[in-house]
From TrEMBL:
GO terms for biological process: quaternary ammonium group transport. It comes from the Bacteria. GO terms for cellular component: ATP-binding cassette (ABC) transporter complex. This is ATP-binding cassette domain-containing protein. Keywords: ATP-binding, Nucleotide-binding, Transport. PANTHER family: SPERMIDINE/PUTRESCINE IMPORT ATP-BINDING PROTEIN POTA, SPERMIDINE_PUTRESCINE IMPORT ATP-BINDING PROTEIN POTA. Residues 5-235 form the ABC transporter domain. Gene3D superfamilies: 2.40.50.100, P-loop containing nucleotide triphosphate hydrolases. SMART domains: AAA. The lineage of its organism: Bacteria, Pseudomonadati, Pseudomonadota, Alphaproteobacteria, Rhodobacterales. GO terms for molecular function: ATP binding; ATP hydrolysis activity; transmembrane transporter activity. InterPro entries: AAA+_ATPase (IPR003593), ABC_SmlMolc_Importer (IPR050093), ABC_transporter-like_ATP-bd (IPR003439), ABC_transporter-like_CS (IPR017871), Mo/tungstate-bd_C_term_dom (IPR008995), P-loop_NTPase (IPR027417), Transp-assoc_OB_typ2 (IPR013611).
Length: 360
């Protein structure tokens, strides 16, 4: 069974630069947890601190309830997987997988048996005697995972392990990784800048910006109820309006903009500057105006994307909007140049703080 990990007010400074800024999170035993954020937001630094390759400047990290202070990487129950797999090309697959066991003095028959067991777990039965060069990118990835699992870690730390694979394989490996994690019960901590990957695989996601954890929640909540403009924009697309909050009632508010008055859900704004965010898939094109949240527009482009159709439009007041319509035959698809209305339901639109969570 996997171990839980507690990050308690963790800070990491490189000289005067603060790479990780007061991060607090408890990851549950057996959880698949992803840190998601743009390049340079501090994800790798968090992973390196958990594995023991970097020390926190302040704060503490507990693995399985034990403080890791002073523990070297090889004293921690963690295994690390990188994008660069570093498999040994001159060893067979089973020798690669059993390498960590050999280092620990485990006998050959036992090593071979363990390697076979792990190959079955990662869905590569029969590959034991092949060479690394005979495997595809996705198969090599599975071997790397089997090799990391061979030493029976309580926590697997994965640093963008799928980013070198092509799109189709990456999508397939998402499901594979998730299945392997559930089969083993090992805690997985996954870092990625790919929101689709994080949402598809994780029990919970921690979204980061500039060293700070912005929101920790399950994937649906991250997407449907982002806490601020950074999370809303990093995890998905939006139509965005600037304006000011008017009258409020039961969690909803009027929002006054240069493009008219709208009504939307009011997030935790804390007095900060706000904007209105609505997803393209919650924006509709109609020939008649709706009762509220309806903007007269002219369609500028209709892009066929396969499962959906993107309708780009300009409002008479100068706003640019996008609606994504499902290609299910149930919706009227407008043509370029057509006049009409972009509308959205108030319950699907959110007024959120514009910026990011600042350090305390
Ligand atoms: N050893 C170091 N010395 C100085 N600055 C560092 C060091 N390691 C990381 N940084 C800086 O800390 C910040 C966070 O780096 P980190 O590698 O954690 O980001 P990341 O979110 O993993 O990004 P990426 O996805 O590009 O790997 C970056 O601005 C980086 O330049």
């Amino acid at each position: 069974m996997g171990a839980g990990i507690d990050l308690d007010n963790v800070v990491c400074d490189f000289g005067s630069f603060r790479a990780v800024d007061h991060v607090n999170v408890s990851i549950q035993p057996g959880e698949f947890f992803s840190f998601l954020g743009p390049s340079g937001c501090g994800k790798t630094t968090i992973l390196r601190m958990i594995s023991g390759f970097n020390d926190p400047t302040s704060g503490s990290i507990r693995i399985g309830g034990k403080d890791t202070l002073g523990q070297r990487p090889n004293q921690r129950p963690t295994a690390l997987i990188f994008q660069n797999l570093a498999l040994f090309p001159l060893m067979t697959i089973w020798e690669n997988i059993a390498f960590g066991l050999e280092v620990r003095g485990v006998g050959k028959a036992e090593r071979r048996a363990k390697a076979e067991e792990l190959l079955a777990l990662v869905d590569l039965p029969g590959a034991a005697d092949k060479m690394v060069s005979q495997l595809s990118g996705g198969q090599k990835q599975r071997v790397a995972i089997a090799r990391a699992l061979a030493v029976e870690p309580d926590v697997m730390l994965l640093d963008e392990p799928l980013s070198a694979l092509d799109l189709k394989l990456r999508q397939h490996m998402r499901a594979e990784l998730r299945a392997i994690q559930k089969r083993t019960g090992v805690t997985f901590i996954y870092i990625t800048h790919d929101q689709g990957e994080a949402l598809a695989m994780s029990d919970r996601v921690g979204v980061m910006s500039q060293g700070r954890l912005q929101q920790v929640a399950d994937p649906r909540d991250i997407y449907n109820n982002p806490v601020n403009g950074f999370v809303a924009s990093f995890v998905g697309e939006n139509n965005i309006f600037t304006g000011t909050v008017g009258a409020t009632a039961s969690g909803m508010a009027r929002f006054d903009t240069a493009h008219g008055q709208f009504r939307a859900r009011l997030g935790e704004t804390g007095g900060a500057a706000v904007k209105l965010y609505v997803r393209p898939e919650h924006t509709l094109f109609a020939t008649e105006p709706g009762v509220e949240n309806s903007l007269p527009v002219t369609v500028t482009e209709v892009a066929f994307e396969g499962s959906f159709i993107s309708v780009h439009a300009h409002s008479d007041s100068g706003a640019s909007l996008v609606a994504e319509l499902r290609n299910d035959g149930g919706q009227m698809i407008p043509e370029t140049g057509q006049k009409g209305f972009m509308t959205f339901a108030a319950e699907r639109a959110s007024i959120l703080p514009d910026g990011i969570v600042r350090a305390k």
